[in-house]
Design brief:
Blueprint lengths: L2 H10 L21 E5 L15 E4 L12 H9 L5 E6 L27 H24 L6 E5 L11 H16 L5 E6 L1 H8 L7 E7 L2 H6 L12 E6 L4 E5 L1
Length: about 250
């Protein structure tokens, strides 16, 4: 288990029965540790030379795709003192999906069909997360006993009129990941984007907050006031040559 997962474990312990995942105890990252995240845009480019921890994108910008550089990027992140975590993109494209037959989905919720959009969205999120886990395992040899973050951003496809179905897709991904041994799940977003997508629905998961312009601003966003979902703010991201991340 990497130290990033241990950090999330310590903070999420306060949420009690609201959360189910658990992982073996390990030394947590110190407050103020700074790491990085990389994904498919860094393919063919240099990777960060140093950092306290790393987070690697498994998908290629949208669900049901794969980051072609995942193996080498994971190796770079895993070599940091805190080890590597993963993140995946999320979405709810509805019948516009080109990846699968939207109403043909019957697992894990068999009620998916016309008039049952939330069930279809849940299946879409659940299956997409499981595919991401399988891809990570195949590319890196690792997928469990770590932290997985769900990237929830307006840049992906979401229903503009059905925030409940959007939330169902996210919950499907959460449930799929929480079935993996030792996996802890968090949300990467901002309050604005989370509200646009889900209507501001509360979700008691750790938050990785985007949008800071530098490390000092990122430190200031560790406040609960910056939480997108109402869960504890565990990491804050700031811009740079590589996206940096501050451990709250």
């Amino acid at each position: 288990m990497d130290s990033l997962a241990a950090l999330v474990t310590a903070i999420l312990a306060t949420l009690g029965s609201l959360l189910t995942p658990a992982a073996p105890p390990a030394k947590a990252l110190p407050h103020g540790a700074v790491g990085y995240d990389i994904s498919w845009p860094q393919c063919g480019r240099s990777y960060p030379a140093a950092g306290a921890f790393g987070i690697v994108g498994v998908t290629g910008g949208r669900p049901y795709t794969g980051n072609p550089c995942l193996g080498s990027e994971y190796a770079a992140a895993a070599a940091t003192p805190g080890g590597a975590g993963f993140y995946i993109n999320t979405a709810n494209p509805g019948t516009a999906s080109t990846t699968l037959n939207w109403y043909g989905q019957k697992s894990p919720d068999p009620s998916c069909g016309p008039g049952h959009e939330a069930a279809c969205a849940y299946d879409y999120g659940f299956t997409g997360a499981n595919e991401a886990v399988s891809y990570a395992q195949a590319q890196t040899g690792h997928s469990t006993n770590t932290t997985w973050w769900l990237d929830v951003e307006t840049g992906n496809s979401w229903s503009p009129t059905d925030p409940g179905a959007n939330l169902a897709s996210i919950r499907g991904a959460v449930d799929a990941l929480q079935h993996q041994p030792g996996v802890l799940v968090g949300i990467y977003s901002t309050r604005y984007q989370w509200t646009q997508i889900t209507g501001g629905a509360p979700l008691a998961l750790a938050n990785w907050v985007a949008g800071a312009s530098n490390v000092a601003e990122a430190q200031g966003r560790c406040s609960p006031d910056w939480s997108a979902t109402g869960g504890p703010v565990v990491l804050t991201q700031f811009f740079g040559t590589f996206d940096g991340n501050y451990a709250c």
